[in-house]
Design goal:
167 residues; alpha+beta; four-stranded antiparallel sheet; 40% helix; globular
């Protein structure tokens, strides 16, 4: 599949090719940017006979990385101090307050540890170029890293869950 940043037309062109060769009924997106694209395209997916398991637009917005502190507080969880930044000057100022090392994350993908100002500057510029603003700065927490994917039942329960330890 093309990256979701290629847009709906490229996505559907490839999806239609796949459906022609290997028909299926249910589409479960797993990438943040894919979900961001598809939540606006449920009608077009349904026209192709595809059912999905997508959040509504408001729920999707609540889980965005730049809203992580608010979501964590609502759920009673702790997260590293997190700052969305929209330009390099703001990033350098936030880094002074947060201290180094920092994790610098894109709104969809990519994360880089920034041990100092020069690495931070380069990482933020690259993320803005690749994914747009904001870039997300977080205090660095040492330990194992995991990705988790879950499918909910719409009533607070989990139908399926998969975790993967990053290496």
């Amino acid at each position: 599949m093309p990256y979701p940043t290629s847009g709906a037309a490229a996505f559907f062109q490839r999806l239609d090719t796949v459906l022609e060769k290997t028909p299926f009924d249910f589409f479960i997106p797993t990438l943040d940017a894919e979900i961001e694209l598809l939540v606006h395209l449920e009608k077009e997916l349904a026209e192709r006979g595809l059912r999905t398991c997508l959040p509504d637009k408001e729920t999707l917005a609540q889980r965005a990385k730049n809203h992580l502190p608010r979501l964590a507080q609502m759920c009673g969880l702790s997260v590293p101090e997190t700052r969305p930044v929209y330009d390099v000057t703001e990033a350098l100022s936030a880094a002074t307050e947060l201290g180094y090392p920092l994790m610098v994350k894109g709104q969809y993908y990519d994360a880089k540890m920034a041990p100092n100002e020069s690495v931070l500057f380069a990482a933020v510029c690259k993320l803005f170029s690749d994914w747009g603003a904001p870039a997300i700065l977080q205090r660095c927490v040492r330990g194992p890293e995991f990705n988790a994917l879950g499918i909910g039942d719409g009533e607070g329960g989990i139908v399926g869950l998969c975790t993967i330890r990053k290496t």
